[in-house]
Design brief:
With about 350 residues, the protein is α/β, with parallel strands linked by helices. Helices cover about 35% and strands about 25% of the residues. Strands 2-3-1-4-7-6-5 form a 7-stranded mixed sheet. It has a 7-stranded mixed sheet with strand order 10-9-8-11-12-14-13, sandwiched between helices. Its EC number is 2.1.1.186. Catalyzes the 2'-O-methylation at nucleotide C2498 in 23S rRNA.
Amino acid sequence: MSADARHRLLAWCRPGFEAECAQELSALDSGFGGGGYARAKPGEGFVEFVALDAEAAGRIAAAVGREPLIFARQLMHGIGRIEALPREDRLSVLLPLIAEDPRRWAEAWVESADSDAGRELSALCRGLNGALLGGLKRLGRIDRTSHDRLHVALLSPTQALVCATDMRTAAPWPGGIPRLRFPRGAPSRSTLKLEEAFLVLLDAREREDWLQPGMRGVDLGAAPGGWTWQLVRRSIRVSAIDNGPMNAALMESGLVEHLREDGFRYQPPKPVDWLVCDMVEQPRRVAARMAEWLRQGWCRQAVFNLKLPMKKRYAEVQLCLGLLHEQVDAPLDVRARQLYHDREEITVFARRA
């Protein structure tokens, strides 16, 4: 087992956001004393972080388990690295390396990045995954009661980083990507953003407790109704705020009140359970508006998107989240992620603690 590999962390991320993911990891490492560095290339869809030592890598991984990174879909701790996988028999190299680690694995995934180059490896990943599971079963290394998951990250046809995650805190989907189907009847594909936000940013108990039939919500910038649709499907009554037209079928649900008003001026007549917002506007302005709703007690919780600029995106995210905390001036539970269905944006959940 390579000691150097145990210094490494691998993060899957959205292609084009490697720099932001690397900045997050570097900032976290600095909080533990620093000494590590990131390796990332634009468009690859992953970031390698080389920590000072294995202990430092473990501290970073544990911290991310408690509070996930914004720009990383999955963060994995290295076990071993292979630079020359034989194309004719990759298992002959992988299995001995994996066997050096004493753990038993609940699951084993062979993955590649969500990039053009990574997608070219998808067929190889599927074929190798079955063979790997078979090999691990023969070695007696599969234990469904374990909390440890094995990841073989193919970075090229002959290069792999073998990693581990704790299933209690790691994303439960290969690549950190929940595969959602576009629901029949939804007015727009943006509906998948809010569906993923509920799935990623809330746990099962929170979804059950906080998304109950009969609750009330407001959707700022609602038209044509993709985000409103997600609330309505949960039998939540919605005030849809937008000067544009709403989907006719959605309006027939009887759960939507369409108000042709400005989302930056509208105030609800009484507090609501949910505020959702996917307006195309400067992120600082959106963050300030969300802070106003939370500060005034107009909503219990909010989910909103921040559209990021082309440059200094990490700095803009930090500024907006800082602004949110400062302007609410009360304890906040804030969770932010760049979701798979996001593009040049991040999605934020905020609730007064």
